[in-house]
Design a protein that fits this description.
With 101 residues, this protein is of the alpha+beta class. The protein has one domain. The protein contains 3 helices and 4 strands, in the order ββααββα. α1 (27-43) packs antiparallel against α2. The N and C termini lie close together (7 Å). 28% of the residues are buried.
Amino acid sequence: MAAAARGCPVIVRIMGEGQLEVPEGELAALNTLDDALEAAIETGDETRFRSALHALLEDVRRVGKALPADSLEPSELILPPADAHIDEVRQMLGDSGLIPD
């Protein structure tokens, strides 16, 4: 990821929840979950989409360290809330998904 220097944490915002500091070394695993989310969106499978979105968000919460609510750090990655609709997430996807390679 260009925004993060090698070994630096990445600031990830989960919409409606707040920001987390995620170690850069965790991005590859998160990218795998992001790939599964993209595949579910491509097929339009709502059940698979919901499962993939929750897995991605749960892993970000697991590996990330929550920043204080009043933190003003710029977010390098923005993820949808757990209750996001498949079409909302589809619109958020860039060329590299939610978690760029």
